[in-house]
From TrEMBL:
PANTHER family: DNA POLYMERASE KAPPA (PTHR11076:SF33), DNA REPAIR POLYMERASE UMUC / TRANSFERASE FAMILY MEMBER (PTHR11076). This is DNA polymerase IV. The gene is dinB. The keyword Zinc does not apply. PROSITE patterns: UMUC.
Length: 351
């Protein structure tokens, strides 16, 4: 039987800022750029009570919470703290899969510390994180990898949730499908339209019908809801791309309207890249345009940094493929490479 732990730091960037500046502790704060079109990386729990969330625009966040303090991020500090946390993980297992600076999966199946109890190990890790960094973390413990991730969100902040083997089936049956990793907004709408809202609904429909109605991912979802997808730790996870996209309530009916959305999308992409420490790994820029007939097109260009002019040209190129069709979705993205930063530095010295 596998023993997975998912550790998720509590509002990590905001918590670091509150730790280093006690005057912020009792105030609603968020991390992000100062300009109006900026996008928030995260918010503390006081701000979240007002509805402020990550990936929200500064403008909307300030409408919800006029007293909100938007603090510029300090990525070097966050990376340093994240490294401290990962050193703690390494005391218990070599099977570590970081998802970002502030969360990771651990496989502690073969760990002998604390009599091999995954719950005791998880709480020992949480205690040591607090003693070392002054920050709190939440944990999920389960014999299935994705269940551990869901569980880590059950008792936030500064809590833990154990889903032991005998409770897995009941947990999955009652689980809202939107909580399952891989079930996005569009997928959830399709499932709900078919009367599927929780795991038990999927199980009642059956494997064959899930595959008939939804294809391969339908069969995979059935297996997840049935507890068949155990998962394994990927210690060599390399992210190959990252993107942001917005679907608009009303179609954009001109190139000028599409280009007007570029600053907002680029700011959001910039924040996400910073939060994941990926700004120095960019190898390609790309755009996605979905027209009002749901036909999509993309365009890309090799580049090692975010560039407004290149994004503008790519949007123009993609937009013109649609003729006079309205645009319902715009997206910006980057391709990622482990050595893109080194290539850029070499090019600078050779130029």
């Amino acid at each position: 039987m596998k023993k997975f732990i998912h550790i998720d730091m509590d509002c990590f960037y905001a918590a670091v800022e509150m730790r280093d500046n006690p005057e912020l502790r009792d105030k609603p704060i968020a991390i992000g750029g100062k300009h109006r079109r900026g996008v928030l990386a995260t918010a503390n729990y006081i701000a979240r009570q007002y509805g402020v969330r990550s990936a929200m625009s500064n403008y909307k966040a300030l409408q919800l919470c006029p007293e909100l303090l938007i603090v510029p991020g300090r990525m070097a500090v966050y990376k340093e703290v994240s490294n401290q946390i990962r050193q703690i993980f390494a005391k218990y297992t070599d099977l570590i899969e970081p998802l970002s600076l502030d969360e990771a999966y651990l496989d502690v199946t073969d760990c002998t510390q604390h009599s091999g109890s995954a719950t005791l190990i998880a709480n020992a890790i949480r205690d040591e994180i607090f003693e070392t960094t002054g920050l709190t973390a939440s944990a999920g413990i389960a014999p299935i990898k994705f269940v551990a991730k869901i569980a880590s969100d059950e008792n936030k902040p500064n809590g833990y949730c154990l889903i032991p083997p005998h409770r897995v089936q009941g947990f999955l049956k009652a689980l809202n499908l939107k909580k399952i990793p891989g079930v996005g907004k569009v997928t959830l709408e399709k499932l709900n339209a078919s009367g599927l809202f929780v795991g038990e609904d999927v199980l009642n429909l059956g494997l064959n019908q899930m595959q008939v109605k939804f294809g391969t991912w339908g069969a995979e979802l059935f297996k997840k809801c049935n507890g068949e997808v155990i998962g394994k730790i990927n210690t060599s996870r390399i992210r190959k791309s990252l993107s942001v996209e917005h679907t608009y309530e009303y179609d954009k009916t001109s190139l000028e309207q599409c280009l007007a959305e570029l600053p907002k999308l680029k700011d959001e992409l910039d924040i996400r890249l910073q939060s994941k420490g990926l700004l120095n790994k960019i190898s390609k820029l790309s755009v996605k345009v979905k027209f009002n007939d749901f036909v999509s097109t993309t365009a890309d260009y090799s580049c090692t940094h975010l560039d407004d002019d290149i994004f503008t040209r790519l949007i123009e190129k993609a937009y013109l493929r649609g003729g006079n069709k309205g645009v319902r979705l715009l997206g910006l993205g980057v391709g990622l490479s482990e050595n893109s930063y080194e290539q850029e530095q070499l090019a600078m010295f050779e130029s």
